[in-house]
Structure prediction request, 313 residues.
Amino acid sequence: MARPLRIEYPGAFYHVTARGNEKKPIFLSDEDRKKFLSLLESAVERYKAIVHCYVVMDNHYHLLLETPQANLSAVVHYINGNYTSYFNKKHDRCGHLFQGRYKAILVDKDAYAVELSRYIHLNPVRAGLGERFTDPLISSLFTYAQLTRSFPWLTTSFILSYFGRIKREQVKQYIVFVSEGLEKELLENPLKKVFASTILGDSSFISWVRQNFVEEEANRDIPALGKLHVGPTIDEIKKATENSTSNLKERRRIALYLAHRLSGKSLSEIAGAFGNIGPSAVSQNSSRIRAKMSEDESLRKTIERIEKALKSE
Prediction:
């Protein structure tokens, strides 16, 4: 299974989901749900995570989660790992509880947080649990509907801030907003707008993520990078290096290095474009070129010049 792309930075906002292995239940009782919610509370205390919404279904959960300390992986691994240990011991079982890796969508919170909160809060209704859709062990909607904070670790202020300034009015308008979703049978799933299975946001947000995080991740063989990355094609890189040196082997090594660094293609795709090499050779070549650049100023300047020209095209 290909690794998912995890983009982490201070203040990042995510829609996180995890499902039971083979779609089997991961919550068999209210006691299980209480344990899971206690782990959310601990994550808030231990990792300074901010939980905006949750829904705990029989075989999966949804979270709207914010990470001021850029530690999404640590937060979710803590929650899932500890819950798995609890569940296996409680129900006399062993092995994996969750199906593969958790899914985390990076969200432009200003554009989509409110819409996502409604989608999450209506999840129990869509699954036929309408009678419990305000149960605090199932959904954070119960806390949103109260004027007092039922769970102090749950943050409702950000979502409610979009519905006025006075708390009582915010609560009233938000409940109306969610209720309208019940009446709209064809209410669109906002997650259908996710880009490259990774980002939910408009073009400017996606562009910002590309510019700040994709190049940093470019040495990883992750399929989502191919869609996220906007850079020169391998053919353009080969053409740009044609006059870099008279040494054909050195020219090929430079082109291979720049393809790995700038094209956004996977190691296998790059290897195929150059022929007669394997994916591991692409990484090895990049390591050698980087080491040589630290000692050879002429090579470093040549590569920097080519890279600058490619980025300006």
